[in-house]
Amino acid sequence: MSERVLVQQLQSLPDGPVSVSGWVETVRDQKKVQFVILRDETGAVQLVNPATRELPEDADDAAKAALALTETISALTTGTFLTVTGALKHDERVKLGGVEIKIAGLDVAAAALPETPIAADSGLDKRMDWRFLDLRQRRNNLIFRIQTTLEHAMRTYWIERDYIEVHSPKLMASASESNAELFEVPYFEDKTAYLAQSPQFFKQMAQVAGFGKIFEIAPAFRADPSFTSRHATEFTSIDAEISWIDSHEDVAAMQEELLATAIAAVKQKHGAEIEELFGLEVQVPTLPFPRIPLAEAREIVKSRGYEIPRTDGDLDPEGERQISAYVEETYGHQFVFITDYHPEIRAFYHMRDEETGLTKSYDLLFKGVEITTGAQREHRVDILIEQAKEKGLEPEHLEFYLDFFRYGAPPHGGFGMGLARVLMLLLGQDSIREVTYLFRGPTRLAP
Amino acid sequence: MSERVLVQQLQSLPDGPVSVSGWVETVRDQKKVQFVILRDETGAVQLVNPATRELPEDADDAAKAALALTETISALTTGTFLTVTGALKHDERVKLGGVEIKIAGLDVAAAALPETPIAADSGLDKRMDWRFLDLRQRRNNLIFRIQTTLEHAMRTYWIERDYIEVHSPKLMASASESNAELFEVPYFEDKTAYLAQSPQFFKQMAQVAGFGKIFEIAPAFRADPSFTSRHATEFTSIDAEISWIDSHEDVAAMQEELLATAIAAVKQKHGAEIEELFGLEVQVPTLPFPRIPLAEAREIVKSRGYEIPRTDGDLDPEGERQISAYVEETYGHQFVFITDYHPEIRAFYHMRDEETGLTKSYDLLFKGVEITTGAQREHRVDILIEQAKEKGLEPEHLEFYLDFFRYGAPPHGGFGMGLARVLMLLLGQDSIREVTYLFRGPTRLAP
């Protein structure tokens, strides 16, 4: 038996015997000829078999085998995985890639039940129930190839610059962000563990440990009861943290270069297919990304006729869309850093500018949606304790974190970015559910 | 002020003004001259200052500043993070890299408390209490640079071969391995979630989804009350799964090539430093790794005079050391695949050989310790259900998993490998605690 070849290799092979493996996408069982569309992880190919519908009385073994093959093909169900050997033939009349395979032998690995529980036009929730079937769609497969390329380009960017990749623990003895949204896990000796909401404390720990520059791509957990298109109870968080910065600007400069590099890698490898399957052209962002202080952003939004209802001084989702629309119109840019947030709407560990009193932090918006918060962290323990108290936090509960800063600490900062949000926006999708391998939400824990 | 330079760059710079940032490793405060050893993430350098101990009556500003600098240096505590500007001077008499910096200015970022709670010879548990200080040691820093190189080489190996990187959920509605060792998480709507013990089911899901070849590097959780040097309640699991294999041998062939590639990358980048700091030479394994069927391995162990006490037919830790010693002596190899395990000591989803009835699976031992279980999986749902029942599992509780195989499935298999075990053995360490960023065990949940 010939070695398995991938469908995408067929066009470059000469006519002759081949073996392909994949699953049945469709069967057209015509009286005189049978067609099977077989898909694998690289593409689809047409298989063809001249049907043998009945046997003459003096049928030989070959004729009997031909009848059996015809009957096997007639009985094939959509989704059945199989290996087919046969003769590859180039034929420009074949729309699907200009090749077809005349079936010689067919080996079913596992047959599918005849009724497929979802169709291409099934609703999102139904598709998520049957995610393993939903992922067989070409564009869903592409999403995770894009994710792979995006992440690898980011990791490579960092590793070429001597960053250390860390795996910080997801089981913690206390909250990493706030006590809200915390999953509790009964632990040994009647203790309670908590699932990390972010690697915040532990990536800062790498800085006081003298690691210099680190990154982590790992799950984070939020017991978040919200049902928006961009929240999940478990998500993949992309985090970086670097030492010896002068301000959050050093973090922003790294992040914009990182994103431009990663998006360029995606465009180079998948740009054509994204255009075909998602109907959009990937835009590699120019550097630097525009920066707009929050107060100015609010003024701009207001001047566009939108009155932000929230009173805490932050943008709301519509405000984010408005400022992004402004940036797109004015600078032709899909990204914008919003800077200079008031301490009231930022975490206690954000460093504050001595002159303005505003935090040395930013949010990064991409196509109107926030994908990142970045900041310089307060590394002076006395100020850090004051800021924690100001937020109503009790320093006693933060001792293990505060200890990090009592034995020396460099100035440092970093960002956290939701992988699914980036993918969702990059591919023009409505929901992170579309770009998450298996989504987890308040009412979604399976499959 | 000059831009920060890394300590490792100093040797290649000309004499002249530089700026370095790091932490104080030691201060030698002699009467006439002060020496500070400053370490950053790349190395250590000697800083020097001619001491000014008292001022003449007509002291000028420069003299006053010199006195202040001397006093600042005298007060420096070990671990204090600071930036120093000064004049770089090459001097071959300086043991530490043949350069020193005459201090011109010194800026403390955050001073350390005077008493450092751990010393280089503190016990492991104490060092873990103060892991952020422990990680400042050069060899601990190196461990995580090695980890970064090892992982990146593995990811690159896979990505060059068109694997997809997945992030499977860690919150699950049911057990992925067995009901033992399961952390429970109270979830929404009075449901209970479980922390994934492995990505087993979800990496198999990628195969029925037609992804072809996938990998994942992510945390896995075991509510395992054991206190051995190689168990943790949370660990980083390296997983791969591939379709259209003929047997577990295809998985083993991929894994051995992967490991040889990754270890070669580590040796190339860090070999000299590993030799210096860990006193061992990294051995890049030759291909193929030796393979020994389990029954034969037990015979060999017996012939070496060790009687394995366990009666289930498996090797015990001493048996693993014995067979590895045999392989090292006989083949000069640090790795060995043990194959052909009896179904009784394997998971229900391991495929069985039709002729022998043994599972199509292996364990991989590295320097006498198991680091991996690999197998071909049973993809035929009827047989899978039978095998589950045989193990006392109730198929009703596995419905979501069994469904994967009802709509078509390719033959497939994969392996799971503990990152910390590989690192521990590669670097000749006694415990995974030494090579885990922040270890988690039954009595260890902090920092």
- State the oligomer: homodimer
Rounded radius of gyration of chain A (Å): 28 Å
Helix content range of chain A: 25-40%
Low-confidence spans of chain A: pLDDT under 50, at least 5 residues?
none
Order of helices and strands of chain A, N to C? EEEHEEHHHEEEEHEEHEHHEEEHHEH
Rounded mean pLDDT score of chain A:
96
- Trace the largest sheet of chain A across and list its strands: 6-10-11-16-15-14-13-12
Largest interface: A-B, 102 and 102 residues
Q: Mind telling me which CATH architecture of the largest domain in chain A this is?
A: 2-Layer Sandwich
Which fold does the CATH topology of the largest domain in chain A refer to?
BirA Bifunctional Protein, domain 2
Tertiary shape of chain A: elongated
Number of domains of chain A: 2
Structural class of chain A: alpha+beta
User: Which CATH top level class of the largest domain in chain A fits?
Assistant: Alpha Beta
Number of helices of chain A: 11
Q: Number of DSSP strands of chain A? A: 16
Largest sheet of chain A: 8 strands, mixed
Range of strand content of chain A: 25-35%
Distance between the termini of chain A: 37 Å
Family (chains A, B): Belongs to the class-II aminoacyl-tRNA synthetase family. Type 2 subfamily.
Main location (chains A, B): cytoplasm
Pfam families (chains A, B): tRNA-synt_2, tRNA_anti-codon
EC number (chains A, B): 6.1.1.12
